[in-house]
Specification:
single chain; alpha/beta; Fumarate Reductase Iron-sulfur Protein, Chain B, domain 2; Rossmann fold; Glutathione S-transferase Yfyf (Class Pi), Chain A, domain 2; 3 domains; four-stranded parallel beta sheet; three-stranded parallel beta sheet; about 10% strand; globular
Length: about 350
């Protein structure tokens, strides 16, 4: 659903039975007791119909786009796509842009990343990679500029497992940051730019969950797209691993962008168990797992919301384990800041770094 009409919005609203199941999995509602998915449907209708922006227009931006409401809705209302269309209309009708959204968009256009970092994405890499390969590893902005340790571990693990890949010196932001601001016009320009580079390869491997879902859903590519955890899972299933630990407890936080829309649920759990961890689960987990609060552009406009939601995830995690694993660089970044902000003593780890330590 690339564009929604007023009629289609009204039809979707009419489908809603107000069963409120979506409220049970909406991180924003559970934190604020406001801004339900149904509220967003109503606001988008007003945004479409009114020439003047409604007082509650901000509701469509108070969403992590975790897609939990889409998953649980018995009427299959595409709430996240409706939110996206509401944001886009806010931009096109009234030029609505939060100050930090404007800055980040301009940073991406100027430097290829939201942080205005002019260094190479792999300035931290201490080894030579193959210059030519049919497989492209797309690291993403978060890993390249905020979590190089994760990037090094991913590269090491892929090499140890014999995966042929390269990293393009032309790597540029996938456009997901910009799309979340509602500026779909600029996001489309970024997509067109990257598509030229992507089409040079037979397979694109993404390291970031956000990149994965955005490229999969918005790029018209013939290339096969996989997340790096899928590649590792394929290579490691029949490989014997000598666990570095013996049945230590851990809890796994699913990435919204891998779990609900794309069903990548078991691979990280199987890998962690092969590494020797005994996994605990959140009360709401897998397809019903709650968002950490970092995504959908939330940290850009309401960092206090993002950190409070991160705090909630950590408090629930520590009831079952003092070690939490995740695949997502957004989650790692937000959870670590939440742990520091609220003085929560918990180990926040990514699978790749731990796997790199034990693979020969």
């Amino acid at each position: 659903m690339s564009k929604l009409t007023i009629k289609e919005i009204e039809e979707e609203l009419d489908k809603c039975t107000k069963c409120k199941l979506c409220e049970e999995v909406c991180s924003i509602f559970l934190f604020t007791k406001k801004f339900t998915p149904y509220d967003k449907l109503k606001v988008v209708k007003e945004i479409f119909q009114n020439s003047q922006k409604p007082d509650n227009w901000e509701t469509v931006f108070l969403c992590t786009k975790c897609e939990a409401c889409d998953y649980i809705c018995p009427e299959k209302i595409p709430l996240t796509k409706i939110v996206d269309e509401g944001r886009k209309t806010c931009v096109e009708k009234w030029g609505i842009q939060y100050p930090r959204q404007k800055v980040i968009t301009q940073n991406i256009l100027d430097t290829g990343n939201p942080f205005a970092n002019s260094e190479s994405r792999t300035a931290w890499l201490d080894k030579e990679l193959a210059k030519k390969s049919k497989n492209l590893l797309h690291l993403g902005c978060m890993i390249s500029y905020t979590n190089s340790k994760m990037g090094k571990s991913i590269i090491n693990v892929l090499e140890k497992l014999g995966v042929d890949f390269t990293i393009s010196p032309e790597e540029f932001c996938c456009g997901y940051f910009v799309y979340n601001t509602g500026n779909h016009k600029v996001a489309k320009q970024i997509i067109e730019r990257n598509s030229i580079e992507f089409k040079k390869y037979e397979q694109i491997i993404t390291a970031c969950a956000g990149c994965y879902t955005f490229i999969k859903e918005h790029y018209d590519l013939n290339n096969q797209l996989k997340h790096v955890i899928e590649i590792i899972f394929e290579k490691i299933q029949n490989k014997k691993i000598d666990p570095s630990i013996k049945r230590k407890l851990a809890i796994f936080l699913d990435s919204c962008h891998l779990t609900r829309p794309h069903g990548i649920i078991e691979p990280p759990r199987v890998i962690l168990e092969k590494m020797g961890y005994e996994l605990k689960e959140f009360d709401l987990t897998k397809e019903k797992g709650l968002c950490c609060g970092a995504d959908g552009g939330m940290r850009i406009i309401k960092i206090d919301f993002a950190l409070e939601m991160g705090k909630n995830r950590l408090e629930k995690a520590i009831e079952k384990s003092n070690t939490i694993f995740t695949l997502c660089p957004f989650c790692i970044h937000n959870l670590k800041e939440a742990a520091q902000t609220f003085a929560i003593d918990i180990q926040i780890k990514d699978i790749f770094e731990e796997l790199d330590k034990i693979l020969p």
